[in-house]
């Protein structure tokens, strides 16, 4: 982290928007100024006007914000709408033949869906859900690879008023089971498997394992056939997608729902306990998901937008499954990985489908940067006009490479700061207006009252750092933690007496008021742009029969941003040589099985104890220093047993 902070603070380059993008972009400086002024003057009215203008309402709302139970805010509550109607049906009059989804599979297979075709698919599947007994408010787990059927399943849930929870296909059976049980889901939608980098990854098998261990709420499993690998179908419970869908009508009347009806849950890691089900509503969520596609990506009718995120993450919700479709845009969905069959794959997809706006994560840029600029030079990337990034602070070197090598020095880099909880972008530049500084996500959007405060909660001036917080509610903010309002309040509001939504990141504000995100203030790691709680990984490790204690910290990593570094105390003798290597392997695989391969520790060190204070608190800052391989210069006088440090350093 310290490297990151230094490189951020010494960055002085400023990039003005090019004349081309200034002319092209729908939002120009005067319009943006007017938006800021309006939002400043009448925060709730600003959002209410946009909600009326941008969304199609079945029944208009009369009250924009219900803050009677603050901080449990609800938006547009007496209005009624359907999210899927807003993403699909309302475009059919003018855009039925326009492409909604361009899909490229891992092996290069391509499939197109027009808005009409997407409508028909979603309707058939909505009718299928109804036939399988799914009703408004039921929870449905979607555990699928990055294929159009995942979006079709999400949209179909939205159409019938079922609350979906997409579980990333890379999560293990154990992680899936926890989420199914927390949501008390009635149905799981999955595939036989998914294709990634030329390999078939089983998914139905993991569902079977999860269901064998509990998940009593699950009545049905719908299985889409993707890989044709062998699966076991359980009579009465499991049904093939194509069989369930046979004979279903292409028409389905969307259920009109109150605007604050939950649309989805998405589980994310925090500093304590098990992952929490972040609950998002319908109208407010969709408004910001849609608007930020317009504001940050300037999507117009000619654009082809590719967001590389998996639908298992919030980015895949707001910038694949919902936001761009609400705009009536054409999106690209890609099943594979950036390096298969070679490191030119992303650029080949951009070229072949004429991608104009591309959105990915710094970890992907850093990984591809390593292969040099000759690879992207082999592809025609001339249609690209806007490049976006999300998930972690982008280091200026990666920013410059993205801008120059991929963006020909012309495409603005839209660094978007936001979170699962915020639903949509919060701090980001407008492509046609905002001067850019590599590594800064620039300024809060109009209507987003994000500020930086000190330990006492007072707003700080420029040229200083502190806690990033949001003062006023905004439409796409999480509604609560599923089934646990108290945890919502404790996690996000308690620190400053319910005054602010507390983001969990620290930030620096520079002389121009630009925000530079420094990283998490809690025990959350950011590995390749994915949030992992150190607690979760520690709990997984201690669940192993041979592990007595474990502490996990992040270690700076030049591609992943951070990697997982675990310190482990076994309840056997300290292992050495081949025995130690075997134990390391065993524990890495164990974590992959308990949580998923993304949580696998890169390093594991064994000791006879962990460095603790006399009161028993693990001194994580010392562990971070050891993980980095640096000399310990901190005060160690409060340690119970200082000799443990030598042992962990040498191990
Ligand atoms: O620490 C911030 C980092 O990712 C966290 C949110 O993670 P998650 O909920 O998984 O959502 C990721 C995709 C929105 C934030 O608290 N983060 C996200 N975007 C940025 C970022 N850090 C710096 N710059 C960003 N652009």
From TrEMBL:
<feature type="domain" description="Acetyl-coenzyme A synthetase N-terminal">
    <location>
        <begin position="33"/>
        <end position="87"/>
    </location>
</feature>
<feature type="domain" description="AMP-dependent synthetase/ligase">
    <location>
        <begin position="90"/>
        <end position="474"/>
    </location>
</feature>
<dbReference type="InterPro" id="IPR011904">
    <property type="entry name" value="Ac_CoA_lig"/>
</dbReference>
<feature type="binding site">
    <location>
        <position position="547"/>
    </location>
    <ligand>
        <name>Mg(2+)</name>
    </ligand>
</feature>
<keyword id="KW-0547">Nucleotide-binding</keyword>
<dbReference type="InterPro" id="IPR045851">
    <property type="entry name" value="AMP-bd_C_sf"/>
</dbReference>
<keyword id="KW-0479">Metal-binding</keyword>
<feature type="binding site">
    <location>
        <position position="520"/>
    </location>
    <ligand>
        <name>ATP</name>
    </ligand>
</feature>
<dbReference type="InterPro" id="IPR025110">
    <property type="entry name" value="AMP-bd_C"/>
</dbReference>
<dbReference type="InterPro" id="IPR032387">
    <property type="entry name" value="ACAS_N"/>
</dbReference>
<keyword id="KW-0436">Ligase</keyword>
<dbReference type="GO" id="GO:0019427">
    <property type="term" value="P:acetyl-CoA biosynthetic process from acetate"/>
</dbReference>
<keyword id="KW-0460">Magnesium</keyword>
<keyword id="KW-0067">ATP-binding</keyword>
<dbReference type="InterPro" id="IPR000873">
    <property type="entry name" value="AMP-dep_synth/lig_dom"/>
</dbReference>
<feature type="binding site">
    <location>
        <position position="505"/>
    </location>
    <ligand>
        <name>ATP</name>
    </ligand>
</feature>
<dbReference type="GO" id="GO:0005524">
    <property type="term" value="F:ATP binding"/>
</dbReference>
<feature type="binding site">
    <location>
        <position position="531"/>
    </location>
    <ligand>
        <name>ATP</name>
    </ligand>
</feature>
<dbReference type="InterPro" id="IPR042099">
    <property type="entry name" value="ANL_N_sf"/>
</dbReference>
<keyword id="KW-0007">Acetylation</keyword>
<feature type="modified residue" description="N6-acetyllysine">
    <location>
        <position position="617"/>
    </location>
</feature>
<feature type="binding site">
    <location>
        <begin position="415"/>
        <end position="420"/>
    </location>
    <ligand>
        <name>ATP</name>
    </ligand>
</feature>
<feature type="binding site">
    <location>
        <position position="315"/>
    </location>
    <ligand>
        <name>CoA</name>
    </ligand>
</feature>
<dbReference type="GO" id="GO:0005829">
    <property type="term" value="C:cytosol"/>
</dbReference>
<dbReference type="Pfam" id="PF16177">
    <property type="entry name" value="ACAS_N"/>
</dbReference>
<comment type="similarity">
    <text>Belongs to the ATP-dependent AMP-binding enzyme family.</text>
</comment>
<feature type="binding site">
    <location>
        <position position="544"/>
    </location>
    <ligand>
        <name>Mg(2+)</name>
    </ligand>
</feature>
<feature type="binding site">
    <location>
        <position position="528"/>
    </location>
    <ligand>
        <name>CoA</name>
    </ligand>
</feature>
<feature type="binding site">
    <location>
        <begin position="391"/>
        <end position="393"/>
    </location>
    <ligand>
        <name>ATP</name>
    </ligand>
</feature>
<dbReference type="InterPro" id="IPR020845">
    <property type="entry name" value="AMP-binding_CS"/>
</dbReference>
<dbReference type="Pfam" id="PF13193">
    <property type="entry name" value="AMP-binding_C"/>
</dbReference>
<comment type="function">
    <text>Catalyzes the conversion of acetate into acetyl-CoA (AcCoA), an essential intermediate at the junction of anabolic and catabolic pathways. AcsA undergoes a two-step reaction. In the first half reaction, AcsA combines acetate with ATP to form acetyl-adenylate (AcAMP) intermediate. In the second half reaction, it can then transfer the acetyl group from AcAMP to the sulfhydryl group of CoA, forming the product AcCoA.</text>
</comment>
<dbReference type="GO" id="GO:0046872">
    <property type="term" value="F:metal ion binding"/>
</dbReference>
<feature type="binding site">
    <location>
        <position position="542"/>
    </location>
    <ligand>
        <name>Mg(2+)</name>
    </ligand>
</feature>
<feature type="domain" description="AMP-binding enzyme C-terminal">
    <location>
        <begin position="536"/>
        <end position="617"/>
    </location>
</feature>
<dbReference type="GO" id="GO:0003987">
    <property type="term" value="F:acetate-CoA ligase activity"/>
</dbReference>
<feature type="binding site">
    <location>
        <begin position="196"/>
        <end position="199"/>
    </location>
    <ligand>
        <name>CoA</name>
    </ligand>
</feature>
<dbReference type="Pfam" id="PF00501">
    <property type="entry name" value="AMP-binding"/>
</dbReference>
<dbReference type="GO" id="GO:0016208">
    <property type="term" value="F:AMP binding"/>
</dbReference>
<protein>
    <recommendedName>
        <fullName>Acetyl-coenzyme A synthetase</fullName>
        <ecNumber>6.2.1.1</ecNumber>
    </recommendedName>
</protein>
